[in-house]
Amino acid sequence: MVQKSNSIPYGFAVGSAGSLSPKSMAFFENVFRSIVREEVDAQLKAHSVDVEEGKKVGGGGGGGESGGTNENLRLRLTNKIPSIIYTSNDIEAENGEELRVELFDVVNDRIIDVTHPLSSAWIEIVVLDGELFDHGEAINHLDFDTSVVAQRPEEGPWLVGDDKRFRLQNGVYSITNLSFTRNTFRSRTKKIRLGLRIIYDSNNNYPTIRPAVSNSFRVMDHRSQLNKKHHTPRGEDEVWRLKGIGRNGKYQKRLTSRGILNVEAFVKAYQKDSRSLRKLLGNRLSDRKWKTMVEQALQYVPITIPTFHPPNVQQENLEQNAGMDQNEAVFNQNIYASNGNYEFQDQTVLDNFQDSLFI
DNA sequence: GTTGAAGACGTTTGCGCGAC
DNA sequence: GTCGCGCAAACGTCTTCAAC
């Protein structure tokens, strides 16, 4: 057994697991996981050496062209999956590009030669537990297989789409048709990964290639996307798009009862009388939430102007804003967002904002 | 000052229903 | 069968307040 250097948390004794704190539980889970993994890897390595030696004796494989194991060839995803994706939406990479799969040679970091039989191999995508691997960690088949999330027959397939199984074309493939049918809310870690492995059957004699594993991510219900807060709200957005105001929550009801239906109306009410607006929301609303709410609202994109103009060219902006009412145009001159911070060009607007924090 | 319980509210999701 | 919507419940976060 491998000796671990991790120390035992103070206060732990055998038989006290029932009273362990979550932190201690997490600590022991990690320790046990790493110990088990090291043991399994060691056994697997010993086993694979046996197999390789057996094959060499038998004269088959070893060269990586057919049969056996080829440690130099690996599957990989060349781009990252966003940390949150939504059910029913096709899975895309972080920048909106297609997810790209490559079978490459680790020796020269090049895509497999088009003449290689594996350059047109069939690939299968499965859902893996999100906690089990560090991104970039070399994955062995045992770890991979044991972390495949079991599918419950009553729930139907988790992954759907033409690209659940696909065939590499010249060693590469772009995934365009693959989506989740349900979210990861009920899974223990709430996170999963995609796993890709070559499909082996009696018709091919591919060498064994290590599977690929994506970064971990959450799958959320597509309705969460519809209800998402708008970091830079539009003037016509309903007030619940602001952080701290729940859809159909008390704050939205209080605001709508006074005719404040959208973000633009919220900002105008704030401009007119920030103290009254603050009082309308009640004492339960903390200063922190109020500040967050106002800061987000002040970033709004006015209904009549599709883009927000920075105030460093004030005269030019006033001319561009000629179509909106004067208060709105002047207000746009007074603030602008930069890395989430505001700069108030007009002292009265700054005073108004600061006063509203101390009601 | 610290800690923990209680409460308020927002977020997320499952489920059912009706429309198409 | 699929989609959109509303409702309700579970859960998470944050604040307040009393006890120490």
TrEMBL record:
Record domain Calmodulin binding protein central: where: 236-297
Pfam family, one: Calmod_bind_M
Start and end residues of each Calmodulin binding protein-like N-terminal domain: 73-222
GO MF annotation list: calmodulin binding; DNA-binding transcription factor activity; sequence-specific DNA binding
Domain of life the protein comes from: Eukaryota
InterPro entries: Calmod_bind_M (IPR046830), Calmodulin_bind_N (IPR046831), CBP60 (IPR012416)
Record GO biological process: regulation of salicylic acid biosynthetic process
GO cellular component, one term: nucleus
UniProt protein name: Calmodulin-binding protein 60 B-like isoform X1
Organism of origin: Cucumis melo (Muskmelon)
